[in-house]
Amino acid sequence: MEIALNLSSAQLRNLRNGKGIRISPAMFGSGVNMIIDPMNYNNLLKELEREKGAVMSMGNDELEENEIQGTGLFAGAGKKSGKTSRIEKARKWREFSDETLRKGIDTGRYGYEQFKEATDPVGSELKKTGKKAIQGFS
Questions:
Q1: What is the pTM of this model?
Q2: Which residues of the chain have pLDDT under 50?
Q3: Where are the domains of the chain?
């Protein structure tokens, strides 16, 4: 069943986290649309018809259904500040530095091989062909 409740951002957050919230009759009828279990819907309606408030919480299946359907319960959930946490930055820099380090090692190895080849052209040619150098000439 789908209902509309006028909820604050803190109440939405508590519902998404599986906590219970207090619903008054004034909140019913407008605001955020969400899907709830028919049994919870009937219990909520009974309390609201008697002009009483009710405590509402959502189970895992209700939360999954709301997330799948993309209802207002999950609209706008997530980072609002646009800031990146220090942990996320650390992970990003760790991946970057690891990749940079590996590229540096490969570049260093290549440079060293080029240096050896330039300083000892005869020895490097013999290594390429697989022959051994004559004693005293390399």
A1: 0.50
A2: none
A3: 2-69, 86-129
